[in-house]
Design brief:
Length: about 200
């Protein structure tokens, strides 16, 4: 039990990040679901609007949770920090779009997936269904994984990591100052007194 607690403590940030990521995904998909009541996802530009609504809602939901629970940021410049967070999410949104375009339109896993399904006696002859299977395979197992990793790296090292880095630098400078003072005090103590 002690080992489990140690592992949970060691990987707390990653575990909480994954939980927040799942919650963000649910909220984002729920926003898309609601938007589909007002827009037609079969019309290209409206489908784009639906996905954009989901993305915006997801980013607005994810920022305070990542700030507070995952990375425990104390940065007083919240607007600047949110701007960096949103910018990093825009870059990973572009990554998601490119991955989906490439693996759905250029390099399809459809044939491989259909062969795998046929091993379990699952035969899908409907072409639309085959396309949907390929789409969701790429969305869940390739794009979501790569985007999640990229978002974590951006958040940890670029968005929320700056404050920790500055604090380490300040602590290091303070140690150097303290060490310098100690050396000066030691030199003063060891210097011969003039009488």
């Amino acid at each position: 039990m002690k080992k489990i607690k140690e592992l949970l403590k060691k990987y707390e940030e990653i575990i909480v990040y994954l939980i927040v990521g799942v919650l963000t995904t649910i909220v984002s998909w729920a926003a898309c679901f609601v938007a589909k009541f007002f827009l037609d996802s079969n019309i290209s530009w409206q489908h784009f609007i639906i996905n954009t609504i989901g993305w915006v809602v997801g980013v607005c939901f994810a920022y305070p949770l990542n700030r507070t629970w995952v990375f425990k940021s104390k940065n007083k410049h919240i607007i600047k920090e949110f701007g960096g967070f949103a910018a990093s999410r825009i870059s990973t949104w572009i990554l998601d779009v490119l991955i989906m375009w490439f693996f759905v339109n250029i390099v399809s896993f459809k044939t491989l997936l259909l062969k795998l399904l046929s091993l379990f006696n699952i035969i899908i002859s409907d072409v639309d269904m085959q396309d949907k299977i390929n789409y969701w395979f790429v969305k869940i197992f390739i794009s979501a994984v790569l985007v999640t990793l990229a978002n974590y790296v951006f958040s940890k090292f670029l968005i929320f990591g700056k404050k920790k880095k500055k604090k380490k630098e300040e602590d290091s400078e303070k140690e150097e100052d303290d060490t310098g003072k100690e050396l000066n005090e030691n030199e003063a103590d060891s210097a011969p007194s003039e009488q």
